[in-house]
Amino acid sequence: MSEHQAREVAVAEETPDLYGAYPRLTDPQITALARHGQRRPTRRGETLAMAGMPIDVFYVVLRGRVAVIEEGETSRQVIRVHGPRRFLGELGLLEDQVSFVTMEVLVPGTVLAVPARRLHEIVTRDPMLGDVILRAYLIRRSLLVGQGTGFRIIGSCYSPDTRRLREFAARNRLPHRWIDLEKDPQAENLLRRFNVRPEDTPIVIWRGSEILRDPDNAELARLVGLPADMAAEKVADLLVVGAGPAGLSAVTYGSSDGLESRLIDAIATGGQAAMSPRIENYLGFPAGISGGELAERAVIQAEKFEAHLQIPATATALEQDGGYYRVHLADGDPLQARTIVIATGVHYRRLRLPRIRDFESSSVYYAATQLEVHDCAGRPVAVVGGGNSAGQATVTLADHVSDLYLLVRDSSLRKSMSRYLADQIERDPRVTVLPDTEACEPIGDTQLEGLVVRQNQTGKEWTIPVHRMFVFIGAEPCTGWLAD
After folding, report:
1. What distance in Å separates the CA atoms of residue 138 and residue 152, rounded to the nearest whole number?
2. What is the dihedral of CA 210, 213, 215, 221, to 10 degrees?
3. Has residue 14 got a pLDDT over 50?
């Protein structure tokens, strides 16, 4: 090991456990796991998992140390070191995704190796041990996403395809880092290194060396191991279209009762709920739960009962044929089922303002996920809307932006927003609530520089100095594919 690597390891060892992300298992827990696996020795430099490759073994370190390494374009960085009683891996191990990091033995010793298929049984049948592992894996995935570990997306902030890739990665909670072609000095060096012209972006860099040039969502999904295409010729008992909480519930209930059940979604599991950083009124979670965690727990539960998921898969038409229903897809063969559940949710409505589309790829948003929060950090923003979606976005954004203006068409927040959200917002000194107020016109060239607003009671118009705008003005059903 080089002196530089030794320093990295020392730093990693000193890092404390974060919120239960790296617990140490007890003797009874290790004994319970040992019934499903076997102990084996490790050797220095041995690779237990390789970034970009599937991982089908759950490891517990019994003796020795194992480094978690991020594979960069020009170097490898140790981001964590696991010692005795710690277990390896993260959420992808439970969801059959590839590993986003490399795991390499630093100090030889012994590991307990449990086949991943048995881990699924342990997590779902042993509540105490399962919750320790699942909670750690959920937090580890959040940490990887926050650190920008994983693949790289290089593209312009003005490019719709860059936005599409970033949204797909964020909605599917995939660890990645965006390198802005317009602002990040690293972008030009990387493009030169891979012999890519700026006009050929966006690109995805995987494992520091593999390049995907303007991939569609399905290509990116295959790269990381998201649920693959189903056997189209087989007739399912139940096909659920839409993977929000309703769709995930339906496919879980169907498969748990022995039905051959399938689930498809155009973008990601979790639907609109998965974009919420905190849901406080969902039954069974009195302390609240993030939308992402709710979605991940539901996916694991559905797969426990052998439900089949396919992401992405866009439904384009529905027809009846010979007693079965057939759902046509934008890409791929149609799927057949005896019963269809349509849970396709909604699209947020767009503001009808002059030139609004000029800003939608750069500074006007219809969701407040980590992707959007990162983009607007430290900037003044406006939130338009008076419902719960606008309230949840306001509470989330207030922690990250410099100023926040909430534009509400009604005279009071309490007319259309849950009381607990309205209370939080009204007590927050960082939020300026503008009742009886509407957005009139965005100001700027390609980036939002201000917003003209109007007070409806007086007709007075003025400009608020915001650089980002979030719009939550209601929604419309996603049922266009069911026309006629």
Report:
1. 21
2. 10
3. no
Return the HEC string of 82-129. Answer: ECCCCECCCHHHCCCCECCCEEEEEEEEEEEEEEHHHHHHHHHHCHHH
Q: Whose CA is closest to 361, among 447, 265, 425?
A: 447
Cα–Cα distance measured from residue 69 to residue 81, given in angstroms and rounded to the nearest whole number:
9
* pLDDT digits 0-9 by tens, 21-35: 999 999 999 999 999
For the chain, the average pLDDT equals 91
* pLDDT at position 124: 79
Residue 193's H or E segment, with its range, is helix 185-193
β-strand pairing of 176-180 with 475-477: unpaired
CA triplet 472, 428, 139: central angle to 5 degrees?
70
Structural element, H or E, at residue 463: strand 461-464
Average confidence (pLDDT) over 143-151: 90
Strands laid side by side in the 335-342 sheet? 308-310, 261-264, 235-241, 335-342, 324-329, 315-321
Mean of pLDDT values over 210-229: 90
Number of H-type helices and E-type strands within the chain: 12, 25
Share of the chain above pLDDT 90, in %: 70
**Strands 203-206 and 76-82, bridge-based pairing:** unpaired
- Peptide bond before residue 312 is cis, with ω within 30 degrees of 0: yes
Q: Which of helix, strand or coil describes residue 372?
A: helix
Give which of 290, 253, 296 is closest to 273, Cα–Cα: 290
Q: How many CB atoms lie within 10 A of CB 87?
A: 25
pLDDT for residue 12 is more than 50:
no
Contact between 373 and 400 under an 8 Å Cβ cutoff? The reply is yes
Residue 286 pLDDT > 50: yes
Q: Which residues, including other chains, have CB under 8 Å from residue 166's CB and lie 6 or more apart?
A: 153, 176, 178, 371
Q: pLDDT of 255-271, one tens digit each?
A: 999 999 999 999 999 98
For residue 422, how many C-alpha atoms fall within 13 Å in the half-sphere facing its CB?
A: 14
Contacting residues for 211 by C-beta, under 8 A, at least 6 apart = 194, 196, 203, 204, 205
Say what the pLDDT of residue 5 is: 53
213 beta partners: 203
Contacts of 326 (CB under 8 A, 6+ apart): 318, 319, 320, 334, 335, 336
Percent of the chain, pLDDT > 70?
A: 96
Q: How far apart are CA 274 and CA 272, in angstroms?
A: 5
**Beta strands 448-455 and 461-464: pairing type?**
antiparallel
Of 238, 311, 230, give the one whose Cα is nearest residue 271.
Answer: 311
Comparing CA positions, the residue from 66, 70, 71 lying closest to residue 22 is 66
